[in-house]
């Protein structure tokens, strides 16, 4: 077995992904499919622009060649971002141009050629953030056991302290920081292949809010302006999609368990269970179908305001971007029908000699979708209408899958409340 093109990536990293090695017997009837499955595993390491496989059989001996084109692994990226949940929320603010962040985000992927990752953030402006994280997916010959660690410090001139009419109420302090958070995390990783990863993390958090926050919401933290807690989380992920960036076939499943234990302020401990499953099906020709579901249950005697979030943050019923929905338990179902509009192949950029940058893939997809969601909240303020109510939306979108796994989405969505609008996103929706 031979590998060509891995100038930075070490060979043991590649061999650990394959389900065969020298000396194994491969049957002719399954050879092509098996080689393709392993090629996809290497490609989904997301370390290469492309991975090709060739096989030659002579006198009963099979020679397999995997050739790859490596990416560029160090990215110093300037930070200029909006200090709100999404573009619509930022646009609704009268002081929107003061609510921006700037700085530098540095990522070193494939550190030491071992698929390790270093990440650092230096962010100034409206939200201050200083972060450093290290992630090693696996050590040893089979790269089964890995490690993760990180530290984050954050403070901001503004804080959303309550939800009224299903929208956030914001406190801004020009000369002070109403919120300060820091946490440190350590974790272990158990990794069979790039498709199956289980992570166990322990994180210590320390958070503080100003007295002004408690004036507007005395129960923001339930007990005083500070709190300390430890999160213990176990997350298992099975990712069998054809590509991780813009999947068209395969399946994805993830289960997470999180136990939060408070240390000092007498807040009740909590337990959260969340599951996600998605399926991607080729319908024939340029048509593809995707369906995804997310469910969550959170158990606690009582929850502080920032712990009682459901839709509007990392989960969203599309078309409800202007709203946040509080609640302990939730369900979300998303469906999409995708048509490959056109594939421009790889556009060559003249004047650039580096193969890591001079070829840009451009694939456009037309997508129609339907989302349905529900949030269960035992006690709801009368001014909030969306908890304990079925949410639904439909729309049409244009997706662009391109350079370095970037996906750009422009969509029009209309929700059950007869509200519609255009939205821009930078991730695959399901």
TrEMBL record:
Superkingdom classification of source: Bacteria
Main location: membrane
Keyword Cell wall biogenesis/degradation belongs to the record: no
Pfam families reported for this sequence: Omp85, POTRA
Domain (POTRA) ranges: 3-60
Gene Ontology CC: one annotated term: outer membrane
Residues in Bacterial surface antigen (D15) domain copies: 110-400
InterPro entries: Bac_surfAg_D15, BamA/TamA_POTRA
Keywords: Membrane
Natural source organism: Hymenobacter swuensis DY53
Protein name listed in UniProt: POTRA domain-containing protein
Compartments reported by the entry: Membrane
């Amino acid at each position: 077995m031979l590998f060509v093109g891995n100038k930075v990536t070490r060979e043991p990293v590649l061999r650990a992904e394959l389900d065969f090695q020298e000396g194994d017997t491969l049957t002719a009837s399954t050879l092509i499919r098996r080689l393709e499955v392993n090629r996809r595993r290497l490609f989904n390491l997301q370390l290469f622009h492309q991975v090709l496989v060739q096989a030659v059989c002579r006198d009963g001996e099979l020679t397999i060649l995997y050739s790859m084109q490596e990416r560029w692994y160090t990215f110093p990226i300037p930070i200029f971002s909006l200090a709100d949940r999404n573009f619509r929320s930022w646009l609704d603010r009268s002081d929107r141009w003061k609510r921006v962040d700037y700085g530098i985000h540095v990522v070193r992927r494939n550190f030491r050629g071992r698929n390790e990752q270093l990440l650092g953030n230096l962010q100034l402006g409206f939200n201050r953030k200083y972060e450093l994280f290290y992630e090693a997916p696996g050590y040893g010959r089979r790269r089964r056991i890995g490690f993760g660690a990180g530290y984050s410090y954050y403070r901001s001139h503004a804080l959303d302290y309550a939800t009224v009419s299903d929208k956030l109420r914001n406190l801004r302090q020009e000369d002070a920081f109403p919120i300060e958070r820091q946490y440190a995390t350590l974790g272990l990783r158990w990794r069979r292949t790039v498709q199956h990863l289980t992570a166990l993390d322990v994180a210590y958090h320390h958070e503080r809010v100003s007295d002004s926050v408690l004036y507007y919401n005395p129960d923001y933290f339930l007990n005083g302006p500070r709190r300390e807690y430890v999160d213990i989380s176990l997350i298992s992920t099975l990712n069998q999609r054809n590509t991780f960036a813009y999947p068209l076939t395969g399946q994805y499943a993830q289960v997470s368990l999180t136990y939060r234990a408070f240390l000092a302020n007498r807040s009740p401990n909590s337990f959260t269970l969340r599951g996600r499953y998605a399926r991607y099906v080729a319908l024939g020709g340029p048509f593809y179908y995707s369906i995804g579901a997310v469910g969550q249950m959170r158990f606690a005697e009582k929850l502080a305001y920032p712990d009682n979030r459901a839709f509007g943050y990392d989960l969203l019923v599309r078309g409800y971007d202007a709203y946040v929905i509080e609640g302990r338990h939730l369900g979300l179902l998303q469906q999409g029908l995708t048509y490959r509009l056109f594939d421009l192949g790889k556009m060559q950029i003249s004047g650039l000699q580096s193969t890591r940058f001079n070829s840009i893939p451009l694939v456009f997809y037309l997508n129609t979708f339907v989302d349905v969601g529900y949030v269960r909240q035992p006690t709801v303020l009368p001014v909030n209408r969306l908890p304990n109510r079925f949410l639904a939306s439909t729309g049409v979108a244009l997706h662009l899958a391109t350079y370095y796994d970037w996906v750009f989405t422009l969509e029009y969505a209309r929700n059950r409340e007869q509200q519609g609008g255009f939205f821009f996103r930078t991730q695959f929706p399901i």
